[in-house]
Amino acid sequence: MMRRLLLALAFVMAALPVRADQPLLADLTGHLIAITTGFTGTSVVLFGATDGPGDIVAIVRGPERDSVVWRKRHLAGMWINGPNVTFANVPSYYAVFSNRKLDDIVPPPAQALSQIGIANLRIDPRDPRTKQDDTTTFRAALIAEQMRAHLFAEYPGSVAFLGDRLFRATLNFPANVPTGNYLVEVLLIRSGKVVSGQTTPLVIAETGVGADVSEFASNNAALYGFAAILGAALLGWLASLPFRNV
Amino acid sequence: MGILDIYLPIAGVSLDVMALLVLGAAVGVLSGVFGVGGGFLLTPLLIFIGVPPAVAVASSANQLVGASVSGAIAHWRRGNIDFLMGALMLVGGFAGSALGVWLFAILRRIGQVELFISLAYALLLTTLGALMLVESTRSLLRRRRAAARRKLHQHTWLHGLPLKLRFRRSKLYTSALLPVILGFLVGILSAVLGVGGGFVMVPAMIYLLRMPTVVVPGTSLFQIIFVTASVTLLQAVENNTVDVVLAMVLLIGGVLGAQIGTRWGAKLRGEELRALLALIVLAVAAKLVFDLTARPDNLFSLGALE
């Protein structure tokens, strides 16, 4: 792993003088994360080079989807799902990696402007008539839940510089990471301004038995159901064999 | 997180494979000892360890197909299955399970499926546990006294229903409507709760249908195979919630546990056993009630839309 990384870094360095017009170059050690049966989370190394000192911010975004947030209310002694707000196009994963605290790199107003950081994510209700109060509380709850599940995260100090030109960061993905097409956006920032940016795709997909099973289950539900029944019946029958004479 | 985590593709979570095997085996031991399917304990326990409730229900049903095949074969070898009775229960069972799966889909859409499952289980297990506790304590107290001889046939209005049929294996002449209705009710239970329904079916067959005790478990298991199979298929198609990986791991643990349980069961005394099971059932019910009524740490929860 380390050797491959160094090799890759060497390539980047070799490439640098050739493309002197490009202030930022970055890539991942892999563009496919395979979720297999034994998947418990994984990491990918982001590496790259800049044409001089500056700050690096890497934003990883998962596929967007609509999310419902339920709020429980107390009814007849029980806590029951009550009011809810559906948010449109919520990134299923959002993580910001940076070499130091985000606020030290970009002043908060500029963060909002260029939508950097969890607080500046655009998350709007699908129904435009949703009350402002509700939007605020439910959005906060959505963010809190996603952070609790490590699906929204900020990792200041996770980008390390080697000298003032080469950088690397380990992007960690938890076991519950959603599958789909991800984008890794790497920004080079100097005195609070984005000087250069580069976007790299990353695919997180189920592979092996797990993928086959869930694909089969959604594409061919009836056949899958029959297979599940047959499998269980067969296993049950096999289990009764050794005890035939009991 | 354990060392041997296994990714469950439909549940979308990784769980320790050893924990699942032990859980399957523990429920298997229980079912071997007590002669119940154990679905009513398996589903809530799966929910406790982090399987989404909808997946827990559907996968338990799938697991039960295998467990009941294994059990039914043993009874069939001894000739203890009333196939006609079982088939009639099935007719009702299929209809009931279809209705149940449909109800389940509606509850899922309005976001109340978790509440419903917890509430239904809390009710069911409390009632069941209390009844079993009362019954076993009573028979423990009564054991010394000579058992009063019961009449061989007690006739109630239930036996006056039309469409009478002769059930040779059960030595009964009774209405075909009874097993159909019973099957229908248990079919609904099976679909929404992921249980075989043996714990309802068995007493009903003994006390309502008045079937001879020897054919009851076999006939119950026989019809549970098909009802749980129908629930598995319908859940797979309608709700996409059957996790085969989960079901198979549980089944492997379960069949091993059941064999151990059957042996222990033969050595242990009935009343004490039933009192013990009653206490286990009540403990699970208490945990469910606590989870429902205690103020949650977090009032908000997320659900994804496709």
Structure, explained:
The complex is a heterodimer of chains A (246) and B (306). Chain A has 246 residues and is of the alpha+beta class. Chain A has two domains: 2-206, Macroglobulin (MG2) domain (Immunoglobulin-like, Sandwich), CATH 2.60.40; 209-246, no CATH class. Helices cover 30% and strands 41% of the residues of chain A. Chain A has a six-stranded mixed beta sheet. A four-stranded antiparallel beta sheet of chain A has the order 1-3-11-10, covered by helices on one side. A three-stranded antiparallel beta sheet of chain A has the order 5-6-8, covered by helices on one side. In chain A, helix 5 (208-219) crosses helix 6 (221-240). The longest helix of chain A is centred in the C-terminal third of the chain and has 20 residues, at 221-240. Chain A is flat and about 75 Å long. Chain B is mainly α and 306 residues long. Chain B has one domain (5-141, 154-293). Chain B has ten helices and five strands, in the order E-E-H-H-H-H-H-E-E-H-H-H-H-H-E. Chain B has helices at 17-34, 39-48, 53-77, 83-109, 113-142, 177-193, 198-207, 216-238, 244-267, 270-293, and strands spanning 5-8, 13-16, 164-167, 172-175, 300-304. In chain B, helix 1 (17-34) packs across helix 9 (244-267), helix 6 packs antiparallel against helix 7 and helix 6 crosses helix 8. The longest helix of chain B is centred in the middle third of the chain and has 30 residues, at 113-142. Chain B starts with a strand and ends with a strand. Classes of the chains: A alpha+beta (246), B mainly alpha (306). Chains A and B meet through strand 5, strand 6, helix 4, helix 5 and helix 6 of A and strand 1, helix 3, helix 5, helix 8 and helix 9 of B. Strand 5 of chain A pairs antiparallel with strand 5 of chain B.
